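Module 6 notes. Inverse folding takes a fixed backbone as the condition and produces residue identities as the prediction. Think of it as a translation problem where the source language is geometry and the target language is the twenty amino acids. Below is one complete input and output pair. Work through it position by position during the lab.
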């Protein structure tokens, strides 16, 4: 399973990439990056969902690893005898 630190770092990287895209879009539409309170509020909400998505992804990887290990232990199909 991925550690909490790995989940946090993946969420942080995703958040930084979203921030860069957000700033590029502001430059395209407004001609400059404009700091606003509403951006900060949206960012707090967005951060929560990015982190939850990364944590869920880690849980899915863990479930896939368990299923793969189970298949390897029992074979691809079980034969009734």
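Target side of the pair, the amino acids:
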């Amino acid at each position: 399973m991925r550690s909490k630190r790995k989940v946090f770092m993946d969420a942080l990287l995703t958040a930084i990439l979203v921030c860069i895209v957000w700033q590029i879009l502001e430059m395209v539409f407004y001609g400059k990056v404009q700091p606003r309170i509403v951006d900060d509020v949206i960012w707090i909400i967005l951060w929560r969902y990015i982190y939850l998505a990364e944590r869920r992804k880690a849980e899915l990887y863990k479930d896939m690893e368990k299923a793969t290990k189970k298949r390897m232990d029992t074979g691809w199909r079980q034969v009734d005898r």
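Reference fact for the lab report: The chain has a mean pLDDT of 85.
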